[in-house]
């Protein structure tokens, strides 16, 4: 009963999610005219995107010091 | 004669039947339209009523199941799917909007304040001006009897006489005797607190030029109280232009509010408080103008020296 994903799988997943969310949050916060009607917490979305980005960077650092 | 009578009766009957058919047709059409209206209302409710919480739940449940199955079957693909679905479900919960209200409710809630002030001004027969008095900075120590000076207030004078003394203001009284007038909390006091929160700086330490640069994006982008806002200072005058303000209806209200021109709408009032706080000087609304379509509001503030 082991978790089927390795660290490199999680790293890939984090990279894809971080890119999607970072692009979305940037588009939403820059185009204020169009994002006016999008009722979501934009700051929180950015926070999640940054957290995922940092998570991905952490896996990269792990890969440097301890190749997997 | 009898044939003519018969003809008349037949014509009457025909008229009646056609009238009945028309009425029946109209009733049926109305019924059909009512049904359509009800269906549209239901559809609208359905579209409006899907909260992000439900969407989040719809993602989390299959996501968790996929994760459990992936562990049981040691399936990489199922793990990816499960992780993705669970993450997006959690994200939907996390970025759920704070409760929003229609902007039209804001100005209808503010109308009663201005109506009350109008009644007070009319009753006391005041013909003076309003002065936004700057508060003392929060970090400055003041003795207990002067604590009233820490809140920004508006002084509405009875005539064009002088200004109240510090002692008089410190008492936090409503009716002032020397000079005659009233002291009230500015309508934009709540917004001022929001501006301070968003600015993350002490307004008393800001220069007027810095304020003119940093305040418009906060009002337009962060708080979304107007579509566009311009703030410019020149000598002892500050001009403000607001396009499509949330409170624009207050200026064109049926009640023809007088105090809105004395005190300004909550945005105008909050900006007056901010300028007073930044400069440490009294501010008065010199004049205001509203475009014929009611979309643009222009206000000129005057900084009172001394």
Architecture overview:
- The complex is a heterodimer of chains A (68) and B (306).
- Chain A is built from three helices and no strands.
- Chain A is an all-alpha fold.
- The longest helix of chain A is centred in the first third of the chain and has 24 residues, at 7-30.
- Chain B has helices at residues 2-48, 52-73, 76-94, 103-124, 166-170, 189-199, 208-222, 248-251, 259-263, 266-279, and strands at 130-133, 153-157, 175-176, 181-184, 228-234, 237-243, 282-290, 296-304.
- Chain B has an eight-stranded antiparallel beta sheet with strand order 3-4-2-1-7-8-6-5.
- In chain B, strand 3 (175-176) and strand 4 (181-184) form a beta hairpin.
- By secondary structure, chain B is α+β, with helices and mostly antiparallel strands.
- Chain B folds into two domains: 52-94; 110-304, no CATH class.
- Chains A and B meet through helix 1 and helix 3 of A and helix 2 and helix 3 of B.
């Amino acid at each position: 009963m082991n978790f089927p994903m390795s660290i490199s799988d999680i790293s890939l997943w984090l990279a894809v999610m971080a890119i999607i969310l970072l692009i979305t949050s940037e588009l939403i916060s820059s185009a204020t005219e169009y994002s006016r009607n999008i009722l979501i917490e934009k700051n929180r979305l950015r926070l999640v995107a940054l957290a995922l980005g940092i998570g991905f960077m952490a896996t990269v650092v792990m890969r440097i010091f301890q190749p997997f | 004669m009898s044939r003519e009578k018969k003809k008349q009766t037949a014509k009457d009957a025909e008229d009646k039947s056609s009238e009945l058919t028309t009425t029946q047709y109209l009733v049926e059409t109305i019924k059909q339209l009512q049904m359509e209206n009800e269906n549209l209302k239901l559809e609208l409710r359905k579209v409006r009523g899907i909260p992000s919480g439900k969407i989040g739940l719809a993602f989390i449940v299959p996501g968790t199941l996929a994760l459990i199955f992936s562990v049981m079957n040691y399936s990489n693909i199922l793990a990816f799917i499960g992780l993705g679905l669970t993450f997006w479900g959690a994200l939907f919960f996390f970025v759920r909007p704070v409760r929003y209200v229609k902007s039209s409710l804001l100005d209808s809630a503010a109308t009663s304040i201005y109506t009350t002030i109008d009644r007070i001004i009319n009753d006391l027969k005041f013909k003076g001006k309003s002065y936004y008095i700057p508060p003392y900075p929060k970090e400055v120590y003041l003795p207990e009897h002067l604590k009233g000076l820490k809140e920004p207030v508006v002084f509405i004078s009875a005539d064009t006489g002088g200004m109240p003394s510090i002692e008089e203001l410190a008492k936090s009284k409503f009716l002032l005797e020397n000079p005659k007038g009233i002291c009230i909390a500015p309508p934009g006091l709540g917004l001022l607190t929001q501006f301070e929160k968003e600015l993350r700086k002490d307004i008393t330490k800001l220069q007027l030029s810095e304020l003119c640069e940093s305040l418009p994006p906060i009002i337009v982008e962060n708080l979304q109280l107007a579509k566009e806002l311009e703030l410019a200072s020149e000598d002892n005058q500050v001009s403000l232009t607001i396009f499509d303000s949330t409170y624009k209806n207050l200026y064109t209200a049926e009640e023809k509010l007088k105090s809105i021109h004395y005190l300004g709408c909550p945005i105008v009032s909050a900006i007056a408080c901010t300028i007073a706080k930044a400069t440490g000087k009294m501010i008065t609304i010199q004049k205001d103008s509203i475009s014929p379509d009611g979309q643009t509001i222009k206000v000129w503030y005057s900084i009172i020296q001394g």
